[in-house]
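step 4 of 6: structure.
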Amino acid sequence: MTARIERVVVALDAVSENRAAIDTAVRLAARWRARLHGVFVEDDDLLRLANLPFARQVSLGAGVERLTLQQAERQLRAFAEQARRDIAAAARRRNVDWSFDIVRGAAAAGISSSTATDFIVAGTATRPIGGHFRIQCRWWSAVAPAASSFLLSSRMWDRHGAVVALVHNREPATERLLDAAAQLAEAGGGQLTVICPGELAEDETFVAWLGERLADYSVPVEIDLAPADPSEVIRRIVNLDCRLLAITADDPHAKPDQLRNLIAQAACDVVVIR
Amino acid sequence: MVDRAGQEFKSGEPLPPTLLHRRSTPEELPFKLSSELADAPAMIGQDRAAEAVEFALRIRRKGYNVYALGPAGTGRHSLVLDLLRRRAATESTPPDLCYVNNFSDPQRPRQLDLPAGQGAGFAAAMKRLIEELRISLPAAFERDEYRARREVLDQQMKTHSEEGFGGLQQRAEAKGIALIRTPMGLALAPERDGKVMNPDDFQALPEDERKRIQADLETAQGELEAVMRQVPQWEREHRDAVRALNRDTTGFAVAGLVGELRNTYADLPDLLDYLDAVEHDIKENVDDFLPQSQPQPTPEPAGSPIPPAAQAAIEDMRYRRYQVNVIVDNGNRQGAPVVYEDNPTYQNLVGRVEHLARFGALITDFNLIQAGALHRANGGYLILDAERLITGGYGWAALKRGLQSGEIRIESIEQALSLASTVTLQPEPITLDVKVVLVGSPMLYYLLSQHDEDFAELFKIAADFDDRVARDTDATMLYARAIATIVRREHLRAFDRDAVARVIEQAARLAGDSERLSTSMRAIHELLQEADQLAADGGKEVVGAVEVQGALDAQIRRGDRIYRRMQEEIARRTIRIETSGAAVGQINGLSVISLGALAFGNPTRITAQVRMGRGEVVDIEREVQLGGPLHSKGVLILSGFLGGKFGSVRPLSLHASLVFEQSYGGVDGDSASAAELFALLSALAEVPIKQSFAVTGSVDQHGVIQAIGGINEKIEGFFDVCLAAGLTGEQGVIFPTSNVKHLMLRADVVAAAAGGKFRVIPMETIDQGLQLLTGVATAVTDRKIADRLDDFAAKAAALARTAPGSMP
């Protein structure tokens, strides 16, 4: 992510917990002096469902009820308007330029036009049923096709905790990862923890290389060894009180199913850097 | 005839100078300076009032409140305050009064009594408790033990979720059905290639396939509904479990801190009850003490962020319910309170509930309850000005209600009058135990007694303040000590004996009686201060009689502008007052004009005309509605005298008219009735009256002269006219003998009398006065009057015979 970010795109829909994503996006846009662009996606899965003759919706308030296309479209319009107002208010508070679009399609449709100078933010969870029960939203599925870095946000930005970067090598993608992770750690006022394999951590040149990469940032840095068993990585992340996990796009955890699993278990924000 | 000092005088003859002004003798004042005298023990001449107040103070029963009635300046406030303070000092100090939150009904704040001086301490202890809890409770919830127990509960919820929704989702996906979050809830949809099937694709499926999918959907739909029905229960169970955990965690942290307070106030059961309520409320509302956790996103609302000051206000509101509002702190008090409320309006008496403006709305709570005078005086004494109470915005009604019900109920006027229906606080009433002393005028006392049925029930004791005291040797010495007390208290220069004597003489003049002293200490107080200032101006260390006289002269000078203007117009003969010569049917009468605190005598020319008539004496003042009822009564009395003396042997066939010449305002009182009769008799007898005299006095139907008021001012008023015209030795005032004891005339009048230049002559009867005024023997005058009346009667009879009905 060494390229300058010109636009922070916040992806929104009618079922996600949008406000955490908006909060994160507007803070980053303000920090990077980038434009804030909201994209509200009218989920075509929902519209197709509403067209089926036997479509039913179950809610705590109304129980079982018929779901019609007209009803679905009305609700989508209402949520889109709410999202637009939230973006406008957040941008005004942070003095950020903003714009807003509504698109119809799958989750990925909303960000199909993103470029390398964009930075995408989306929520990870749907709004809860009752007080606690959430199901994952589908933004994880939009990460892989995206051309830009993608942050899946589940919490408000100002929570405490470290930014954790998963490093496997010294490739250019890793350099971009470190650059982005350091920026995000600096923005959040926390420390940066670099998890890397043992052989890399024990290489003195790696430490020097790491120092050079992070020389421009004023964040405390720690190096942590990756568990030998890859399945233990998530547990390690949880134990590190991680607020944001940064991985490269070619990290095994960035694969759609893995990413879905990672979000569910790590309970932190995840950013995939390109 | 003998005066009070055993000095002889004779009616009809000029009085000796010694009877014109009674001086205080050196024997009566055996000291040189006022500083030698001890303080006066109490107010002078108010024994009756003092006994009444003391009696009321001894009776601690309902209705034994006091109305102290008397003229202003007689020391009502001072005496009452002094007696109450002495009594209060021997009584126990009442408790501090506090209001605290009523946790079960915040609209009705609870009242707590604490021993005097402990209210503020308890308020501070409660503040410390909350500060401690704001630290210790978050710490308790940060401990590993709490977190672990909370994690177990959350994990149970997660398990429910995974078992419910996760299991359903897996089973559905296995059958090609997706669980979708809709904007309002959840839905199930047939899925192909990771996407929900559209209707065309679905219809294109073989019928068996469609039926299978629909059957699977119905099964999954049933499961989803079952899971959804479970959700509220799981939520409730989790909520209850978390609440119980929080309560346990809070209870441990709170118990120790509240326990310390319980030990401190173990002997106050009401306060222990309150602490129980506090502990319970903290356990139920522990979230207020914890930092705002963020498991759920809590975004800033649209629009401007909340300013820090407003945020602090919100924080403050959260803990206000644990504060203690000490509305009456008796910590620094010794004995019972004595409170004087100088503005006894409704709210100043019963207290008020104030409001705060927060975010555009007016809010209130028990912390904004303010005490009234009844609260501050509770357990002691309250002094109020009766006139201000009656006129001061429902204050009287509030006081009566409190005394009748025996409690103080804090309500707005609107509530009390049932004019407002808005919801507001209804603080718990406080038991009222107070002795009220109203200080007011006699007129108001009698009005209330007559027109307010509650008054006699609530104010059973009247303390009647006298405006004068007998001027005997003891009283004179006591008065001197009272003067010395004021001099000392006000840090004035010492007064020498002559100065004190002059002040006492002025007290007699204020009483309008040489044998009495005024108890209006306010006027004496002012005289002492002003005399002291003159001494200071003159560089003297001791105040002498010269300064006292100077102060009196200055007081008169400040207030006599109108009097001097009238004297000036008499001297210029714009107003005609004759002081020499003689005239038939014309006499100088005397009246008094009050100008603020001062009063002056005003000579008036009274004339009479007679003619044949039907026996009427017409009072012209009354005819034009300038005469008051007492004046009219005096004129009717003199008609009675005339009829009694001359009408028994002949009809009174006369028509007489009487008038106050150049009088353009109202006339009342009967003090001119003797002068009017003299004018009438002169007109009837056609015998001239010496204009060098002025006359004052009322008369009865037998011709006896009776006492009148303002004798000193009247004599001085005519003296000033004569002085301006030139004293001849023939001039003087004829007045009732019964007024001799009231004479306290100015020094210049006394000096003129002593020099034979002015005469002050008492009279007993009309006959005696008429002889003085005309210089003609009474028998001669009476004969002339009888002849005149006979002549009127004969002419009237003749006229009646020749022209019946023509009598005017």
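step 5 of 6: annotate
 - Residues 294-304 of chain B have pLDDT under 50 and may be disordered.
 - Residues 11 and 763 of chain B are 5 Å apart (CA to CA).
step 6 of 6: archive
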